[in-house]
Amino acid sequence: MKSDIPDRTFQFALRIVKLCLVMDQKPGVARTLANQLLRSGTSIGANVEEGQASQSEADFVSKYSIACKEARETHYWLRLLAACEVVPAPRLTELEAECNELIAILTAIIKKMRARQS
After folding, report:
1. 43-60 burial string, b = 16+ CB within 10 Å, else e?
2. pTM over 0.70
3. Partner of 82 for a Cys bridge, out of 64, 89, 107, 113, CB 3.0 to 4.6 A?
């Protein structure tokens, strides 16, 4: 499970970047929300990558915990975009589903590592 998460978070970030490129072409709220989504959506994978090179189990758990928080924030922005109709809800369905799966996977990895530390 752990080895596949860096690739999944990278692919997720790639999809977020592509969505934000489209949103960035619109003025006002869409552009502002795109910036928020871009930051949190790409941070998930960046923190997972840092966790892969962690110096201790505690460092690993810390980086993966940050990635999980970023995934939760990303889920929030995706829900908001759909609710405000900045992006059509059907366009976001797969991204929201993948984000939920990432949250579940990251949470499971964190719990497993914390149990191992105890």
Report:
1. bbbbbbebbeeeeeeeeb
2. yes
3. 89
* 75 membership: H or E segment, kind and range: helix 57-83
Dihedral sign computed on CA atoms, order 93, 95, 96, 97: positive
Q: 67 CB contacts (<8 Å, ≥6 apart)?
A: 9, 43, 44, 45, 47, 48, 51, 106
Q: Which two tokens stand for residue 112?
A: 């497993």
Q: What is the pLDDT of residues 90-106, one digit of tens each?
A: 999 999 999 999 999 99
105: left (phi over 0), alpha (psi -120 to 50) or beta: alpha
Q: Which residue has the tokens 């405000």?
A: 84
Residues shown for the chain: 118
Residues 6+ apart with CB under 8 A from 94: none
Domain CATH for 76: 1.20.1440.60
pLDDT in tens, 37-52: 999 999 999 999 999 9
**Structural domains of the chain, count:** 1
